[in-house]
Inverse folding.
């Protein structure tokens, strides 16, 4: 079963990424249009004929998603319906989502973090992973193409994060400009034993503000 | 005397547990796809308040895309986090929790497409 799931995942990843990878990163970045603040109902991913045909023929993609994408268009309402079905399935399997999830961000992306008690009956985790795969394995990757964060907005968000931390009295943030810098900042503090509860509270308040303002899912550490 | 020995043993055990808690538990592997794309995946429990997974193709080249997720166990539950945040060849998932175990799923995709050399692997800490 695990092998089948891996094969399905690899297959959908290949189809989802073929066009993007072929273009190269710099081309892709220059063509990224922002969806920040857009009415999500107006968003869609229109696939080319070759990609649509590949999806139609690929039997490793869950049948529901193949049907959904057979017209070559992924609309927001279709994406939303898949997300809601995943959430219903996770809950029916004994898992849960956090309060308020799935949550729609300002870029038109739903975020969700399924969880389940470690004392759950055997098979719970597999069922929950199946809920995600059946509904979103390809759909979520295709929607991620719609709501990509443009490079210039990411840079602006990192600047806002730096200013927020500095404004709240966190020292040594002047050189933090890339996502890797913020990640290293946290890691080094944890290694040095200075990731205090007070620091975490301050960092989280800034990170959540930036995450919400700029629609950068996952920017704030999970708590 | 026996009580003294027991106290000494308890003190040593406590000191050892503190030392162990301060040592990061990490697993890193590097993977090459058949299409010439190379990257590494890391899952690390850094301290009792910070853990992360990352997938990084940045230093190696040949990759068009990375995708990662992590499952972190804390507070008696397992939590799926991700896809990670980041740009281009690197993605992270950060967690401010006392994580007891974590696993990362890392996926690399060849540059230049079509992406037929995609490769997935996992790390655990």
């Amino acid at each position: 079963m695990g092998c089948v799931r891996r094969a399905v995942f690899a297959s959908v990843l290949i189809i989802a990424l073929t066009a993007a990878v072929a273009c190269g990163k710099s081309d892709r970045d220059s063509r990224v249009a922002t969806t920040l603040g857009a009415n999500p109902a107006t968003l869609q991913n229109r696939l080319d004929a070759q990609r649509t045909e590949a999806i139609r023929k690929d039997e490793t993609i869950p049948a529901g998603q193949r049907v959904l994408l057979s017209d070559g268009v992924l609309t927001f309402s279709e994406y939303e319906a898949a997300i809601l079905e995943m959430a219903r399935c996770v809950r029916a399997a004994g898992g849960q989502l956090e309060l308020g999830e799935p949550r729609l961000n300002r870029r038109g992306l739903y975020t969700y973090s399924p969880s389940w008690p470690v004392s759950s009956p055997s098979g719970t985790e597999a069922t929950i992973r199946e809920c995600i795969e059946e509904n979103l394995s390809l759909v979520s990757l295709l929607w991620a193409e719609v709501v990509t964060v443009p490079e210039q907005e990411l840079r602006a968000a990192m600047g806002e994060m730096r200013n927020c931390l500095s404004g709240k009295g966190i020292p040594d943030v002047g050189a933090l400009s890339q996502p890797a810098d913020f990640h290293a900042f946290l890691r080094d503090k944890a290694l040095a034993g200075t990731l205090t509860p007070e620091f975490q509270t301050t960092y989280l308040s800034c990170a959540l503000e930036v995450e919400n303002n700029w629609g950068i899912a996952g920017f704030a550490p999970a708590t | 005397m026996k009580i003294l020995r027991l106290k000494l043993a308890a003190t040593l055990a406590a000191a050892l547990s503190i030392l162990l808690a301060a040592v990061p538990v990490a697993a890193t592997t590097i993977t090459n796809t058949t299409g010439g794309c190379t990257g590494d995946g890391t899952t690390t429990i850094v301290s009792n308040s910070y853990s992360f997974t990352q997938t990084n193709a940045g230093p190696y080249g040949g990759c068009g895309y990375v995708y990662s997720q992590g499952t972190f166990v804390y507070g008696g539950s397992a939590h799926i986090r991700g896809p990670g945040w980041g740009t281009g060849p690197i993605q992270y998932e950060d967690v401010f929790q006392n994580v007891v175990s974590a696993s990362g799923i890392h996926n690399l995709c060849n540059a230049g497409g079509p992406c037929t050399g995609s490769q997935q692997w996992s790390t655990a800490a």
Summary: DSSP finds ten helices and five strands in chain A. Residues 49 and 72 of chain A are 7 Å apart (CA to CA). Residues 2-23 of chain A form the longest helix (22 residues).
